[in-house]
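Hello again, I could really use a second opinion on something today. I've dropped the whole record in just underneath, so have a look.
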Amino acid sequence: MKRFSALIGAAMIAALGVPAVAQETERGPVTNLPLPRFVSMKAAEGNVRRGPSLTHRIDWVFKRRDLPLEITAEHGHWRRVRDRDGQGGWIHYSLLSGTRTVIVEDELVDLQSKPDPDAMTVAQLEMGVVARIDRCAIDWCRLMAGGYRGWARKSALWGVEPGEILE
């Protein structure tokens, strides 16, 4: 009888809509785009504020064009962002671009001619290099940096989700 009660309880929980493993993506209230999502700095310099308006104090100044950032919230013309170190705040949307970039997190990353660890190495990227994403497969991204193009493992990059595919 106890086993039957446990089964009935589990069925009731499932019927009440307890979230399944696959959850719906949260959407931004302003853009209706997924949150969180990655973007990049359009400007060479951008003030990062404590809150979403010009009256809020400037906490940071990002000084790197194409720096990948993660948008975590939206409010009017403002986006709450964070960098790979978790630093950030609110920045005006006009300073951001939808162009996708990544930053190299490993000491040295090989750019391969194909998404294959045995493929020819085209170039090597050092930690901190910012590269533009051309496209991404499951485990690899095709990048452009310093006049070179090649494939790098996603696990060595910040600015793209592990399973994200970009065409």
